[in-house]
Amino acid sequence: MTTRTAPAATALYDIPGPATRKRHRAYGIATTVLILALIGWVVYLLFDTGQFTAAKWTPFAYKGIQELLLRGLGNTLKAFAYAAVLSLLLGAVLAVGRLSVHRAVRWIATVLVEFFRAMPVLVMIFFIFVALKVQPLPALVTGLTLYNGSVLAEVFRAGINSVERGQGEAAYALGMRKTQVTTFVLAPQAVRAMLPTIISQLVVALKDTSLGYLITYEEFLHAGKLIASNLDYDLPFIPVVMVISPIYIGMCMLLSWFATWVAKRERRNPKMKAVEIAPAEPGTLLPGVQ
Question: Tell me, what's the pLDDT at 276?
Fold first, then answer.
């Protein structure tokens, strides 16, 4: 006769027994049914309100509408590319300023970082566009750069400070200057820890490019708004959302996947590999030692 052994306990929690597993399975089934019911209800409402009628989806078959969406998507990616590059550069400059040994430079960098990080992105974009009378694309890119650059500055500073203290001390002991220590010792080691957070912040910048439609920048959301407000197509607002949203989500997921892929690649192929040290051998004795 065989006896069933009780599940072993771990240091953090007790492994659930048969009754608990059955209860968790029931919870999972109930949650799945509830989610499917909610999705079914939403789909029913969409059909009931005529969101899948041919009149609302016809615009997407026209070449002019497709070109409008593609042009808007291209403008979105262009604004994101400018903002991403400039944000990285501004973040690096502000991070260097915050790590400076000169108190005046450190204070100025700190004030800039805290100010632009606390200021709403939309307020900065409107101020640059309305008060300074800047064109839509430069106004959008400048607002995104100031905000995301200040956030990335804190990411860079925290990443460099997270490197083991002995690394910098050893570099200083070798006679390296502060710039050399930061550039060749601290920054390369910090990049591996910072990279997922950096790319996550770039996802935020990509999503915030949609604010450009508020200042008449012809980006992807602006193109969708033009289509959705067209009376000739029976105001296809929901179809436009159903077309544009997956593209935005797909671009953000692609960036997030890239961050995960880079992190895994760095773990598999570290740049800093262990150096084999030869075993100690008898050396020359000091004078006077027998």
Answer: 46
Phi, psi of 217 (to 5 degrees): -80, 130
The structure tokens listed for 129 are: 């566009």
The whole-angstrom separation of Cα 97 and Cα 119 is 20
Q: Sign of the C-alpha dihedral, residues 271, 272, 274, 275?
A: positive
**Which pLDDT score, from 0 to 100, does residue 12 have?**
59
Q: 73 - beta bridge partners?
A: none
Collapse the DSSP code of 150 into the 3-class scheme (helix H, G, I; strand E, B; otherwise coil) and give the result.
Answer: helix
d(CA 24, CA 18): 10
- Tell me how far apart the alpha carbons of residues 235 and 216 are, in angstroms, rounded to a whole number: 20
> Which residues of the chain are modeled with pLDDT < 50?
272-278, 280, 283-290
9 φ/ψ angles, rounded to the nearest 5 degrees: -95, 150
- How confident is the model over 127-171, as pLDDT tens digits? 999 999 999 999 999 999 999 999 999 999 888 888 877 777 787
> Residue 118 burial by CB count (10 A; 0-12/13-18/19+): exposed, middle or buried?
exposed
Q: pLDDT of 116-131, one tens digit each?
A: 999 999 999 999 999 9
The residue behind tokens 């979105």 is 76
